[in-house]
């Protein structure tokens, strides 16, 4: 009969957990891109020029749906997706006009990202945490500005440069370039 997992060597279990984690990340990333492909107009897929423009700034990349999805997939693979989630939550919070909704979102953001042992706790210093906690009582659109700025700078100086060197980004730019070549070849054939 089967003796169960306890009979396996611990290094096998650790390797299996690592493989499972990478598989989950891969499948989630694939779902993100599939969701974009289904919801977006094919013309919104990045051209090679657009994908190369993502190198100019983090803002340009985050403004493009495919750029955002690619960066999210990359961060997920590095277990730092909470940084982007926090930044996006802050952007949404700043756009909220209703004081009641803003207060609710402020508390949710704090409990999800700032509180010690929060489910998606971001890595900010104690002073920033303390300052943000004090600003939380104001419920104005600037409550999270300092923390959001620190996380943006962290992504811009740390994760973003690694993303631009990643296989994910390099493959994306190659795919965009190959689509252009295919279209130009088919255009030439149709003209002859």
From TrEMBL:
One Pfam short name: RGS
Stored PROSITE patterns: RGS
UniProt KW Translocase keyword: no
Keywords: Signal transduction inhibitor
Domain RGS: 57-173
Gene Ontology BP annotations: negative regulation of signal transduction
SMART domains documented for this protein: RGS
Domain of life: Eukaryota
Gene3D superfamilies documented for this protein: 1.10.196.10, Regulator of G-protein Signalling 4, domain 2
Keyword Cytoplasm among record annotations: no
Protein name: Regulator of G-protein signaling 5
């Amino acid at each position: 009969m089967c003796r169960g997992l306890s009979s396996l060597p611990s290094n096998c279990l650790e390797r299996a957990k690592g493989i499972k984690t990478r598989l989950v990340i891969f499948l989630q990333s694939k779902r993100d891109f599939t969701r974009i492909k289904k919801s977006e107009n094919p013309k919104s897929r990045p051209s090679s020029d657009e994908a190369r423009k993502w190198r100019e700034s983090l803002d340009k990349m985050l403004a493009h749906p495919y750029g955002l999805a690619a960066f999210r997939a990359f961060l997920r693979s590095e277990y730092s997706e909470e940084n982007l989630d926090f930044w996006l939550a802050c952007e949404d919070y700043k756009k909220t006009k209703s004081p009641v909704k803003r207060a609710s979102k402020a508390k949710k953001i704090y409990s999800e990202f700032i509180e010690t042992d929060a489910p998606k706790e971001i890595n900010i210093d104690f002073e920033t945490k303390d300052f943000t906690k004090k600003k939380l009582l104001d419920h104005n659109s600037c409550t999270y500005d300092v923390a959001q700025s620190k996380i943006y700078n962290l992504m811009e100086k740390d994760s973003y440069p690694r993303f631009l060197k990643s296989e994910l980004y390099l493959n994306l730019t190659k795919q965009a370039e190959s689509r252009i070549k295919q279209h130009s070849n088919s255009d030439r054939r149709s003209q002859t």
